[in-house]
Amino acid sequence: MPIDTEKALGLLLAKENWLIRDIQVLDQEFRKEIKASTDNRHRTDPTDMASTGHANSSARHSQIGQLKRALNKVRRIIQGIENGTLDYGICEKCGEEIPDGRLELYPETTLCVPCKSGEERIKKRLFASQNGRLAAAIF
Buried b / exposed e across 92-124, counting CB within 10 Å, b at 16+? Predict the structure, then answer.
């Protein structure tokens, strides 16, 4: 039997709050990094400062983007549960029940372990294939 809807909503709302808080913290850090990099233009090696600052800002920006995508997913699931359009706790790929333990750890999951593992294997192969082509193009 899938996880209780009220319990699921509680877990998802907690996850939503956690994601919002993390996005706000990272956004504040990102803004401070941008301000610091523009305030410190008097350094002796602007190229080094720019490359380091850009790398940090780019990584922070990427983290914020990942968290925002996760937040949107959580919000779509909450909305689907609330309006009855989502069969929460059922794998969207194979239709099998997702174990309660998995849902408690990852309330935003929509895939069972076998389907998620298959998806990850495909991503790894695709990444390896793309890296192989990139390496061949470079060397």
Answer: eeeeeebeeebbeeebbbbbbeebbeeeeeeee
| Annotated domain spans of the chain | 5-138
- 27-60: string of b/e by CB count within 10 Å (b at 16+)? beebeebeeebeeeeeeeeeeebeeebeebbeeb
Supply the pTM of this predicted model.
0.73
Which tokens is 9 given? 């909503």
The one-letter code for the residue type at 62 is: S
* Architecture label for domain 5-138: Up-down Bundle (1.20)
Q: In this predicted model, which residue has the larger pLDDT, 2 or 97?
A: 97
pLDDT of 139 above 50:
no
CA pair distance 54, 52, nearest whole angstrom: 5
